Structure prediction request, 326 residues.
Amino acid sequence: MVNELIGDEDFTLFPDLAVRPLGGSVIWANDESFAEKENLINPGPSEYQPSTFGHKGQIYDGWETRRHRGEPGDDSAIVRLGVPGVIRGIVVDTAWFTGNYPPAVSVSALEIAGYPPAESIAERTDWVSLIDRAQVKGDSRNPFPITDENRWTHVKLTMHPDGGVARLRVHGEGRPDRELLGLGPLDLAALENGALVLDCSNRFYSSPNQLLYPGLARKMGDGWETARRRDDGNDWVRIRLAGPGLVRLAEIDTSYFLGNSPGSARLTGRTTDGTEVELLPRTPLLPDTRHRFAVTPMAASVEEVRLDVYPDGGLARLRLFGEFGG
Prediction:
């Protein structure tokens, strides 16, 4: 069983707010002579094939800059988070970089309104430091817990002075742009709106955080899948909603799950005073199907939802449409 996420020392249980499937983008880098900056936020671990050369040299699944050869200056890349939010920890992964990793790195952040050009963001001088210049190891995952409680939209990774980084993971909690809330239908279970997986029974094949990703799943691995149960129990996941609200419509999506989708599912809410309420009774599910269910209107808002699947299996997405308040 996964430990309670809130307060857990392992910040990597929080979703990666920068990863490409969440909409992250590497918008700028001052140099990418040997390997492209976009690799920093690719999902999955970095891959490597020795003695695989392109016209720029050995091919690396990461971001690699040229040698400075004593010239002053450092190399930086800027990532626009797919989900702006509070950062709980950062991993600077130097996998496969052995003789060409940076001796030290630093990470800073900004909250930026609107969509200014990348060049103007790179020229800003008000970046806030999250990780002061710190030594890193080659071919290693270098973790850095973060205690800052501010909301950020962009992070800047700086290598001192140059080298290669395979992946940049920015783990945290989504925080929406409050000016946009209430302007249309709201998914109370979306990471980008501030929802978060608190706990689950099993994450053998994939993370339950993917249930709350935006967009449609593109393959079976984009969802949450549990191991096969060999007992009389069932699997479940607990979700803290974006805020206390009234759920009007539930979407339980089993897309791409064929012989491994759950047989049925149930949704239970917890109100702000701790009362449990049934949002959706145990209901049969079909494989590879986007199910949509009307939720009986509740008199009180719920702040947390538990999804039970029977007995086990995989889901692509969970959507809980409604509005704040109630």
